[in-house]
Amino acid sequence: MEKCKICGREYKNINQHVNTAHKMSIDDYRLIEETVEVDEVISDEDFGKSVTPEERSKIIFKDEITESKAENPLSELLKEFDVTEVQLRRLLVQYKGGQAIPISQNIDENQRRAQKEASEILENYDGSELEIPDLWTAEELVKIHGFKCLEIRKTPTKRWVLKR
Ligand SMILES: [Zn+2]
């Protein structure tokens, strides 16, 4: 007797079973990962007679597959609303404390601060390369003041290297 790696049932003639029940050649069948534990017997009625290894794998790993699809829902959310995780956290703290501040207001604040910083930087600018540690300020300098981003340095902290 040999336990079928696809449906978990025991068969005397596994070749014939795999062939007729799963429409698979024995060579293909042998390629199925041995590590796939058949922990429960699923009857043929449950998923039809011609289940493929992929389908079998989906049945076994249903949860994992669903999870990997939504790899990082938070990053998608942040992208959608154009906020950083820190901003979102701050917002949630304020919200839970009873003081909801609209995200647009939060962004406005960042932009105002960046505008102020950018104009201070411009006052003393001597044409050399600048290392800006803040995305908002860097963006302001590039978009409004004609700076070019030469490089984004990631260590020790993220900095935007700008020049005009
Ligand atoms: Zn089988």
Q: What does the secondary structure layout of this molecule look like, with pairings?
A:
Blueprint: E1 2-3, E2 10-11, H1 14-21, H2 26-31, H3 44-47, H4 53-60, H5 62-69, H6 73-81, H7 85-96, H8 103-123, E3 130-132, H9 135-145, E4 148-153, E5 159-163
Antiparallel strand pairs: 1-2, 3-5, 4-5
The protein binds zinc ion.
Please give a structural write-up:
By secondary structure, the protein is mainly alpha-helical. It folds into 2 domains: 2-68, no CATH class; 102-163, no CATH class. Helix content is 53%, strand content 11%. The chain has 9 helices and 5 strands, in the order E-E-H-H-H-H-H-H-H-H-E-H-E-E. It has helices spanning 14-21, 26-31, 44-47, 53-60, 62-69, 73-81, 85-96, 103-123, 135-145, and strands at 2-3, 10-11, 130-132, 148-153, 159-163. The strands form 2 sheets. A 3-stranded antiparallel β-sheet has the order 3-5-4, with helices on one face. A two-stranded antiparallel sheet has the order 1-2. A hairpin with a 6-residue loop joins strand 1 and strand 2 (10-11). The longest helix has 21 residues, at 103-123. The N and C termini lie far apart (77 Å). Mean pLDDT is 78; it is low at 65-69. Bound molecules: zinc ion. The site of zinc ion has 7 residues, from helix 1.
